[in-house]
Design a protein that fits this description.
- Helix 1 (27-37) packs across helix 2 (41-53).
- A 7-stranded mixed β-sheet has the order 1-7-6-5-2-3-4, with helices on both faces.
- By secondary structure, the chain is α/β, with parallel strands linked by helices.
- It is built from 12 helices and 7 strands.
- It is 46% helix and 13% strand.
Length: 224
């Protein structure tokens, strides 16, 4: 854990987790998209990383292989073809479930909130996480990095923004907008965004940068 200095130690009451690359390893999801496009998985992955490295949107990856690609339309097509996007227990990071349970047992309220589809929201609910509430961009009608998404989290948590810790893998989509609205933040460095996107000032304002969710328990127990 990289514990960052010169920061206030807020009284955290609610811990909210992003979904993709925070709780869920999305390797299978993106591999299935490569299969759908008919390109080798390593080629799709390399192109994905290259686009992120130059500051592009991950959705531009699809355009490289199929110009005019419409992600929403193709999601429907996959369902109709019996090949819907999906994930299950085997796609969870090993530290996800134990950390949520440990924090809930320690008295924290737990939320899960990410840019996800209604289908993903249903899967999250079926996984029976130790969570007090679950929300997705499709369900809320607003998406990160919009401040409205984070205001919705505050409403769901029922506490002040300063009493919420948001944990995510993206400095641009998760951490920076959560900070702007007054939340405490922790960056988990995993998945492509966790390593490729750099913003030293935003990271400096995090309570910590971690490599495993299990580090959160010690961080919140000993914030000094």
């Amino acid at each position: 854990m990289t514990r960052l200095k010169n920061l206030p130690n807020p009284k955290i009451r609610t811990v909210v987790f992003d979904v993709g690359e925070t709780l869920v390893d999305e390797s299978r999801e993106y591999g299935s998209w490569a299969d759908w496009l008919g390109v080798p998985r390593h080629t799709f992955s390399a192109t994905f990383g290259a686009i992120l490295a130059r500051g592009g949107d991950y959705r531009d990856t699809f355009q490289v292989f199929r110009p005019g690609f419409d992600l929403a339309v193709e999601r429907v097509a996959r369902v109709q073809a019996g090949r819907p996007e999906t994930y299950d227990e085997s796609d969870l990071y090993p530290d996800a479930r134990p950390t949520l349970e440990a924090l809930q047992d320690a008295g924290f309220k737990i939320g899960i909130a990410g840019n996800q589809t209604i289908r993903s929201e249903a899967i999250l609910r079926q996984l029976n996480f130790a969570a007090d509430w679950i929300a997705t961009s499709d369900g809320l009608g607003v998406a990160k990095p919009s401040s409205e998404f984070f205001r919705a989290i505050i409403d769901l948590a029922g506490v002040a923004a300063s009493e919420i810790l948001y944990v995510g893998d993206r400095l641009d989509n998760d951490i920076a907008p959560a900070q702007r609205i007054g939340m405490a933040t922790v960056l988990i460095r995993r998945g492509p965004w966790g390593y490729i996107i750099k913003d030293p000032e935003v990271e400096r304002r995090c309570l910590a940068t971690i490599n495993s969710l299990t580090e959160l328990t010690a961080l919140l127990a000993n914030p000094e």
